Amino acid sequence: MPKKTITVILFIALAWNFTVSYVDKQLEKESNSAVYANCHKVWAARGLYENHSEQNTIVSMQRAFTAGALGVEVDFYYDIKMDRFIISHNRPTKGNDGNLIYTKKNGKLLTLEKLMQTVGAGHYFWFDYKNLDKLNIQETKDAISRLLSISEKSTMRERIYIEGSNPLRLSMYTDAGFKTILGIHPLRENNLFSSIVLNGFKIAYYFTNITGLALPYGAIGNPVYGKKTAKSLRTIPIFLFHVPDNKDLLYSLIDRDDVRVLLVGRDASINRFNINTCK
Predict the structure, then answer these.
(1) Has residue 1 got a pLDDT over 70?
(2) Fewer CB atoms < 10 Å away: N or C end of the chain?
């Protein structure tokens, strides 16, 4: 291998390790006391539903809150033409008129305005922003204006967490006064490149204005969020989804200060809201 190539490789490796070390030291200094730190960490994914059609509905969310959940994870899209946030998990299709067609709830579109007017008071929301990375800068600004008008009550804004996969677009929401979660999908811990990928996400988190990270737990025997990942991300507020329904695992996770919210199960409605760290 040519000396010039070796020199370049060594320089990249040194720069990478220096950046990771710098980011770790800076993150150690940050305070995340304003991020959700309630003793009730288990939230409901798309509400507490009895069948698939009840997901992301007012009924399923009211049922989850009645059962003891303090927060719910909700899927939404921002529709550019309507200037509305539409509650839906399924990707919309395009009609003959060019307008997007969303899954209806009880025969009607469920907007974020309606949702918050009906069940927003006093509750927390983790909004999975399905088309965040599809919007340009101006469309993002329009969406932020709409969201600001919906959450004009300051206490409501404090209880909203917006998840997306585009750190630059997402940080625009943080700049506007919202709490944000960068959705990441690290490699499983037994993968040779898992630490490299994880450090890349951590660097992206640090150099953009984002509140926390969301990631899947993975399998109990082969986790994404295992001991190594937890140690690497220990200074960052973590929102975990697809957490296996295992009592010992849930109790071990809620005892971690960095883990702020858990969504139990995958494509399943599971009530584990009684598992908490309340004294």
Answers:
(1) no
(2) C
Query: Does residue 8 surpass a pLDDT of 70?
Result: no
CATH number, domain containing residue 195: 3.20.20.190
> Is 161 in contact with 239 (CB distance < 8 Å)?
yes
Contact yes or no for 202/20 (Cβ under 8 A):
yes
pTM over 0.90: yes
Cβ–Cβ under 8 Å, residues 228 and 202: no
Domain for residue 15, yes or no? no
Query: Is the Cβ–Cβ distance between 62 and 120 less than 8 Å?
Result: no
Residue 132 lies in a domain: yes
CB atoms within 10 A of CB 77: 24
- Residue 116's domain comprises 31-264
Handedness of CA 20, 26, 32, 34 (dihedral sign): negative
Q: What is the pLDDT of residues 138-161, one digit of tens each?
A: 999 999 999 999 998 768 899 999
* 153-162 b/e (C-beta count within 10 Å ≥ 16 → b): eeebbebbbb
Beta strand spans in 148-267 (E): 160-164, 179-183, 212-216, 238-243, 259-264
Measured between alpha carbons, how far is 20 from 5 in angstroms, rounded to an integer?
A: 23
Flag whether 271 is in a domain: no
Return d(Cα 99, Cα 94) in angstroms, integer. Answer: 6
Q: Is residue 12 part of a domain?
A: no
Q: How many domains does the chain have?
A: 1
Higher pLDDT residue, 254 or 94?
254
Name, in order, each residue with C-beta under 8 angstroms of 154's C-beta and a sequence gap of 6 or more.
Answer: none
- The Cα–Cα gap between 151 and 156 comes to 6
